[in-house]
Amino acid sequence: MKEKSKRIFFHLVWLFIIGCFLGFIFETIYYFIKNGIWINKQGLLYGPFKPIYGCGLVLITACLANFKKGKSPVWIFVGGVVIGTFFEYFASYFQEIVFGTYTWTYSSFNLNLNGRIYLPYCFMWGVISFIWMKYGYKLYLKCFNKLYSKKFEIVTYIVAALMIINIILTSLVTYRFSERSVSAIASNKLEEKLDIYYPDDVVKKKFPKLRVYK
User: Fold this and answer.
1) Which phi and psi angles does 212 have, rounded to 5°?
2) 8 Å CB contact between 16 and 59
3) Where are the alpha helices (DSSP H) in the chain?
4) How many Å apart are CA 83 and CA 149, to the nearest integer?
5) C-alpha torsion sign, points 171, 55, 12, 50
6) How many CB atoms lie within 10 A of CB 100?
7) How many beta carbons lie within 10 A of that of residue 84, not counting itself?
8) SS3 of 194, please?
9) pLDDT tens digits along 138-192
10) Global pTM?
11) Which one, of 156, 203, 153, lies nearest residue 175 by Cα?
């Protein structure tokens, strides 16, 4: 792998992980402030990670970091709103089509679109983008350049591999959870193992907001 390609790969890995982690922290605290109770807001089976924010941070950084007008607060905010909103809608649709599940819906609120996006939260993507591009991204680049070394590369490969395994396992467990909701019997050894180690009570504890479309 060429040096430039490696650095891009490492950036993608760490931006995704940072976004996942910060998203988990943000949603956990926000839910507590709004509802007064602590709830598990993780989006993967293992670790305090929320993938939608990881993907969102990668997209926002990739689109705005080298944008000619990207240094303007207005353009950062508008760009964040557009990118975040489109991605949140796509992520909701993707989850429904592929897994038959959902973890959020705004159908009970005004100013929503198909229950997938909610206008006030669209603006939140703009605020998050502004804070990240103006302050967080600079700190990230400084830390990345300081830590970059052969050991850093090895750690990144290991972390990336573990994250991929985590995502694949989460996807399989979620899909099987959806199948069990319609009494689908395990059709192979893998599904049998998933039913044993990740039954419905375990999945619901991990993802209390996960629901199956009826």
Assistant:
1) -105, 135
2) no
3) 3-35, 51-64, 73-99, 119-131, 137-147, 150-180, 189-197, 200-206
4) 32
5) negative
6) 18
7) 26
8) helix
9) 999 999 999 999 999 999 999 999 999 999 999 999 999 999 998 888 889 999 9
10) 0.92
11) 203
